[in-house]
């Protein structure tokens, strides 16, 4: 039987040891409503802001990183020095105009497929099946999709059902970045439950990807889930390393990035090492497919940004963008991660200033005018308050917590969740 999702809002962190059935040691971690909502707000708004900071430079810099450090949302009318290659022929180079016209944050594939996953889990439950998610894709996801997502959706029209839509024998783009940028929401559903978050992120990744093309999705799934309680970014990356299979180019690459971060103070040195080894990865007789939107090089650039960003939102997102490649995706993923780590309240004045001063005239009183405007997905609402999206994610997280050995308590008049964590 599918489970109904009930809204329940939930702050204060505590730790206590818990013995689990399989003999492994876990932790009871406690989070109140206010802290959970703050972190989920940071998650959604962090993804949006990272997306818009990286958007103007998407796929414009590949062989070399950007010549500047990105510290704001750039537009097509940039006239500074040095000259920048900016996407000028579509909404990517005109974000303030789009935001002004729509009076809010507008959808893109860094958030809108997650938005459909939210609807799908509300409809079918956390144990949603592949036939059910395939039908949701066919109903809601038809335009503004690219690469592995586009190929998977086309395969659905031919009668294939996930995960066959992501298998390498069917989907020639199985190694691309797609699954990383559309499955972060599983971590929000499973705060502090890294194994469940990584496992369900992998489940979602297989809709579009296969083999090591799913490994960055697994790593970020575990890292974002752990970030609800862990603030040390080096520890988060170690959690990501433990979550992925030990073999494969991404597993090798993430270990390399950790070592290069230790060896080099400048992220640009590490970016060069990533590009030299992993943009055209070879090992023995194996040669990885090469692409500017490959999950391999992009996923590693995001890990680099997390390490060098040291938990600072704008620094992390700035590095993710300035590294180049398909940089709006790295900026959105790492923005969501650091948004969870610090919460919306800890994202910093610069980040909040960007989210309220985005329109070409005036300022909003709340980040992105508390409005998510859907311009890309069929048969869902045009305009949804961001606060409502956050509450809906929190309701699903409550269900996941209770189903995985957690509980709710009242402490000093506040509702708190006690989470059966696994790291």
What does this structure look like?
The structure is a single chain. The chain is of the alpha+beta class and 423 residues long. It has a single domain (14-73, 95-421), classed as ADP-ribosylglycohydrolase fold (Orthogonal Bundle), CATH 1.10.4080.10. 48% of the residues lie in helices and 9% in strands. The strands form 3 sheets. A 4-stranded antiparallel beta sheet has the order 1-2-9-8. The longest helix has 22 residues, at 33-54. The two termini are 30 Å apart.
Give the tags.
about 425 residues, alpha+beta, ADP-ribosylglycohydrolase fold, four-stranded antiparallel β-sheet, three-stranded mixed β-sheet, 17 helices, disordered N terminus
Helix fraction, binned, reads 40-55%
Structural class: alpha+beta
Strand order of the largest sheet: 1-2-9-8
Total of domains: 1
Low-pLDDT residue spans: 1-25
Question: How far apart are the first and last residues' alpha carbons, in Å?
Answer: 30 Å
Order of helices and strands: EEHHEHHHHHHHHHHEEHHHHEEHEE
Number of strands: 9
* Overall 3D shape: globular
Oligomer: single chain
- At the fourth level of CATH, the homologous superfamily is ADP-ribosylation/Crystallin J1
Gyration radius, rounded: 20 Å
What CATH first level would be assigned?
A: Mainly Alpha
CATH topology: ADP-ribosylglycohydrolase fold
Topology:
Layout (H helix, E strand, L loop, with lengths): L13 E6 L5 E8 H22 L40 H8 L2 E2 L5 H13 L5 H11 L6 H11 L20 H5 L2 H5 L4 H12 L9 H12 L6 H11 L5 H15 L3 H12 L3 E2 L2 E2 L7 H15 L3 H10 L4 H16 L6 H8 L15 E2 L9 E2 L1 H18 L3 E5 L2 E8 L2
Parallel strand pairs: 3-6
Antiparallel strand pairs: 1-2, 2-9, 4-5, 6-7, 8-9
């Amino acid at each position: 039987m599918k489970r109904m999702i009930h809204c329940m809002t939930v702050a204060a962190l505590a730790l206590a040891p818990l013995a689990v059935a399989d003999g492994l040691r876990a932790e009871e971690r406690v989070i109140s409503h206010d802290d959970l909502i703050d972190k989920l707000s940071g998650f959604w708004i962090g993804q949006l802001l990272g997306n818009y900071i990286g958007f103007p430079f998407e796929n414009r810099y590949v062989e070399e990183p950007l010549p500047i450090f990105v510290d704001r949302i750039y537009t097509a009318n940039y006239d500074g020095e040095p000259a920048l290659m900016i996407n000028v022929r579509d909404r990517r180079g005109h974000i303030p105009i789009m935001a002004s016209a729509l009076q809010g944050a507008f959808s893109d594939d860094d958030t809108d497929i997650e938005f459909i996953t939210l609807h799908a889990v509300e409809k079918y439950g956390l144990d949603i099946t592949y036939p059910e998610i395939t039908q949701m894709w066919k109903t809601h996801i038809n335009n503004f999709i690219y690469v592995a997502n586009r190929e998977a959706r086309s395969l659905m029209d031919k009668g294939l059902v996930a995960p066959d839509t992501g298998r390498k024998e069917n989907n020639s783009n199985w190694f691309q970045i797609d699954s990383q940028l559309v499955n972060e929401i599983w971590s929000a559903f499973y705060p502090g439950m890294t194994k469940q978050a990584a496992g369900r992120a992998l489940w979602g990744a297989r809709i579009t990807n296969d083999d090591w093309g799913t490994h960055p999705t697994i790593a970020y799934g575990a890292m974002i889930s752990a970030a609800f309680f862990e603030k040390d970014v080096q520890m988060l990356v170690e959690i990501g390393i433990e979550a992925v299979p030990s073999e494969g180019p991404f597993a090798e690459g993430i270990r390399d990035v950790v070592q290069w971060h230790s060896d080099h103070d400048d992220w640009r040195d590490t970016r060069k090492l990533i590009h030299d080894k992993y943009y055209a990865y070879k090992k023995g007789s194996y040669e990885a497919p090469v692409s500017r939107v490959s999950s391999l090089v992009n996923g590693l650039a995001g890990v680099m940004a997390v390490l060098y960003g040291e938990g600072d939102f704008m620094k992390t997102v700035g590095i993710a963008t300035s590294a180049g490649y398909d940089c709006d995706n790295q900026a959105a993923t790492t923005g969501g991660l650091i948004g969870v780590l610090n919460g919306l309240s800890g994202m910093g004045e610069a980040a909040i200033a960007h989210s309220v001063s985005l329109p070409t005239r005036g300022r909003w009183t709340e980040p992105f005018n508390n409005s998510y405007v859907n311009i890309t997905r069929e048969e869902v609402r045009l305009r949804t308050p961001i606060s409502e999206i956050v509450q809906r994610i929190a309701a699903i997280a409550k269900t996941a917590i209770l189903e995985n050995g957690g509980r709710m308590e009242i402490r000093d008049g506040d509702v708190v969740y006690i989470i059966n964590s696994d790291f």
